[in-house]
Specification:
Elements (H helix, E strand, L loop, with lengths): L3 E3 L16 H29 L6 H30 L6 H35 L11 H24 L1 E8 L3 E11 H35 L1 H6 L3 H35 L3 H7 L1 H29 L1 H10 L27 E5 L8 E5 L14 E5 L8 E5 L7
Antiparallel strand pairs: 1-3, 2-3, 4-5, 6-7
Helix pairs in contact: 1-2, 1-9, 2-3, 2-4, 2-9, 3-4, 3-5, 3-7, 5-7, 7-9, 9-10
């Protein structure tokens, strides 16, 4: 143990262990609430994006990947939290779960931060550089390979947690042999792998996220923009920007304490670790784990609070939305009561009509709701064209960036 560093939520005890009164029950209730809300909420997010066509865009596909990562953490890591509460210093889940739990924790955390980075960059490009050709710009078709790449990178980065974690039979001072679960990094690995990876993945990405979201907010929320541009597209973009900022803040506030505690443990010697004491160690572990689990349960709640599209889709899935059962909707919002369609911008190339000039004009308002199940033809007149010149559009759709 002299040349090894212990980094885990379980440590061998040197004395009979008694819990702080009420802490065990409170932690168990909190874990159970988080598990129930998180599993149901993340499954609903996945179902909504898969079920409703108007929800299938690059941003929502990445949010679905975030929900998958959260589900993995809740389903495979909360068991370790429960066994820590009731097994105390004894590991009762076997060698595989001893290795698998810290591995999944790090895989899902890394994949989540990479996914949030991708969502933020996609919004940055769409809002701040709309006319610039960018080979890294995400589309629906590029989302799947991007997600697969994120999971592969996350697994490769987290392999040392699976490698250096194992179960050990140790002797406690109360004359009992117990099985304990340790993640033991050699000091060189703690110095050159654990700390640099944590700083690079989280600190570097946090700096990039701050810059991207500052640029987005400067364009969407400055005073001139608020007075000049209040279209549906802009309001939708502002809503998405606010949601992403909430996701970034909640992610780093809730997950960083667990990472910081891991780094602190990596610098503790065995004597310092045991001197710290079971009560203080367990309290810190319960608090950091609770925040980690809460991060995986809070995202669907943020979607329903801050996103009109998700809120209406949640209601529609549960049978509470006023949306038409025939599927009438635009790609930005559901057609519920009180919604008024705005005029469309139509580009007309006069060369196709025998003219010489290309122009863009706002088409007159048309009161007919667009229905994807029925083919509708909408005559739109170009006010600058010669008499009787018109353009006919089949199956018109709104396309939001």
């Amino acid at each position: 143990m002299d040349n090894m560093t212990t980094v885990n939520d379980s440590n061998a005890s040197t004395e009979p262990i008694e819990w702080i009164p009420g802490l065990q029950l409170a932690a168990c209730i909190f874990y159970s609430i988080i598990l129930l809300v998180g599993v149901i909420g993340n499954i609903l997010v996945i179902v909504i994006v898969m079920k409703y066509r108007h929800m299938r865009n690059a941003t929502n596909h990445l949010l679905t990947n975030l929900s998958v990562a959260d589900l993995f953490l809740l389903l495979f890591c909360t068991a370790d939290g429960y066994q820590h509460l009731y097994g105390k210093d004894k590991h009762r889940l076997g060698n595989f779960m001893c290795r698998f739990s810290p591995f999944v924790q790090n895989v899902t955390a890394t994949c989540s931060v990479l996914t949030i980075m991708a969502i933020s960059y996609e919004r940055y490009v769409a809002i701040c550089q709309p006319l610039k050709t960018n080979p890294l710009h995400l589309t629906v078709f590029r989302t799947l390979p991007t997600v697969v790449f994120f999971w592969l990178v996350s697994c490769l980065i987290s392999i040392p947690f699976f490698t250096f974690t194992n179960t050990y039979t140790v002797e406690a001072t109360y004359d009992e042999l117990i099985v304990a679960c340790f993640t033991q990094f050699p000091l060189s690995w703690a110095t050159w792998y654990l700390i640099p990876c944590t700083l690079i993945i989280y600190l570097t990405i946090l700096i990039m996220l701050c810059y991207w979201h500052y640029s987005i907010c400067y364009i969407l929320f400055n005073r001139e923009a608020l007075l000049r541009d209040n279209t549906i597209v802009t309001r939708y973009r502002r809503q998405v920007a606010q949601l992403l900022i909430a996701l970034v803040v909640s992610f780093f506030v809730l997950i960083v304490p667990h990472k910081i505690w891991g780094i602190i443990q990596s610098r503790l010697s065995s004597e310092q670790f045991h001197k710290f004491g079971f009560h203080r160690h367990s309290f810190v572990i319960i608090v950091t784990r609770s925040l980690l689990y809460l991060n995986s349960a809070i995202n669907p709640i943020l979607y329903s609070i801050m996103s009109t599209k998700f809120r209406q889709s949640f209601g529609r899935l549960c049978g509470g939305c006023n949306a038409s059962s025939k599927g009438q909707h635009a790609s930005a919002v559901l057609f519920c009561k009180g919604y008024t369609m705005r005029p469309m911008l139509i580009s007309i190339n006069r060369d196709d009509l025998g003219g010489e000039v290309s122009t863009t004009t706002r088409a007159p308002y048309h009161p007919t709701h667009m229905n994807r199940l029925q083919k509708k033809r909408m005559p739109l007149t170009d006010n600058t064209s010669t008499p009787m010149t018109a353009v006919t559009i089949n199956n018109p759709k709104f396309i939001f960036s």
